[in-house]
Every structure is written in structure tokens, then in C-alpha cells.
Amino acid sequence: MESIVSGRQDHNKVTDKSYWDGVWSPAQPSLSTLSSSDFYYGKNGLFAKLIHKRLGSLKGSHILELGGGGENKRLLSMKKWMEADVTALDFSDEGLKVVKELFDINQCSGHFLNADICSWIPDQQYDTVVHWGVLEHFIDPRPMLEKSFCALRNNGKLLFSMPNMEAVGAQLWKSWCPENWSKHVFHSKELIEKTLHEIGFSTIESFHYGVPFLKGAEWEMASIGQHPIDLLQKVCSASARVMPIFHKYGNKHISMERGFIAVK
User: Fold this and answer.
1) pLDDT digits 0-9 by tens, 186-245
2) What predicted TM-score, i.e. pTM, was given to this entire model?
3) Theoretical Cys-Cys bridge with 217: which of 52, 58, 163, 180, CB 3.0 to 4.6 Å?
4) 2-263 is a CATH 3.40.50.150 domain
């Protein structure tokens, strides 16, 4: 029976452990100390403002991130600036190696669990569960959302986001990066909200945030229009430093990411 269940879980994924080990191996040479003045991950950066708006103070709270391996500056920010007790769960050995190294470089402590999200059984409950850019790698979002529910205490919050595959610019991603695009599954707002309700979540809210979405991955196919798109994406990202309007007022057709928050 266990092998049958495992097979069903694997069938629900569009990426596997070997894929993510390849993404994070070798360990990122760019790992460095996170600056308090970093415009996105700093103490008063755009990510901190997003978290404070959606979750309030995290001081002393227990945070679990599903799919938390890799160069995870979001989880590091929650620990370093927001004083949360953080746990990263991931099934990629290389991903966990990278996030551990990142925390060590920043002299921060954390908990790191090597486990498959779908087969993992929580041995404690958390105040908040987060995941960023993970749910779209599952054909059926329900198992992962159910696992998120099980890992939360009563009145705990689930906060997660995915790439905004409805953005106008996402069509460039689909056309010029077909292999990368195939690793992502679009889940409609209606499906996500319906599934969250059925599982038992309440107070569900969706939102968009991030810079304008023009480039979702490194180009896999050549096109004459790619150089200006590259440049424009860099300009849009840089503009967030002085004019963070897109992070504050997201838009379905423009924003880089779309998110959801729900209460158990």
C-alpha cells in the first residue's frame, strides 16, 4: 500500500528530487551576508512590508516553510529581522545544503527537515505555514494544501504565492521558455479558494504583488526581441527601489506574483 501511495504522490508532481538537486548543485557561489538595507529582503524592505501587512509581528512565532531549500532569503529575513523561529522543509539534499550555508554565513539558527512534503507527517503545529513558488509544481494542489492545514495550529495562518501565469508577460515565458514553462501548472483563483474552503480554511484572501512581469526564466529559444525585454525587466526591477507602487498595489495582468492567505 505504501508504494502505491508514494506512486500517486510522485504522479502529482511535475518536478522531482533530482530536478531540484540539479537546480541547487553546486551550492550557490553568490551566498553572502544579508544587509539590513537590502531593498527587498532588508529589515524594512519590500518583503518585510508584505509580511507585516499580511501576518503582523512574527517575533517568537514558529514558521514553517514548505519547499524551503535553496538560496532562501525570505526565510532568512523572517529569522534575522523578524525574530521568528523558522523551519525549512525540503526533499532536495542540495537545496537544504544551500539554505543551511546561507544561515551559517548570516550567523542565524534554523531548523532544517529533509522530507517529501506529501509523505511527511508533522510532529508539531506551527503558527504560520508559508511556501513561495511551490504549489504550481503540483498537478493537484489539494494534497499540499491539506498538509499545510495539518501543520498549522488552530487560528494559524497559511501564506503562499506562485508566479503570476496570467500576466501578459507570462506569454513570453511560455513561448520562449517552453521547457521551464512545462514544469509549472496554472491553478485558477477559483480552484485554490474552493480547495481551501473544502479543507477547512476560512478568511481567504487573494492578492497580487511584485514588479511588472516580463521575464519568467532564462530564454531557451532565440528571438530578436529578447534583448529589449531583458533590459526592460531590469529597469522595472530597479524602479522598485524608488517607486514600490507595484508591490503595494498589485495587478492581475502585470504583477510578478499572486498570493493567497487563509486562516485555519
Assistant:
1) 999 999 999 999 999 999 999 999 999 999 889 999 888 899 999 999 888 888 877 788
2) 0.91
3) 180
4) yes
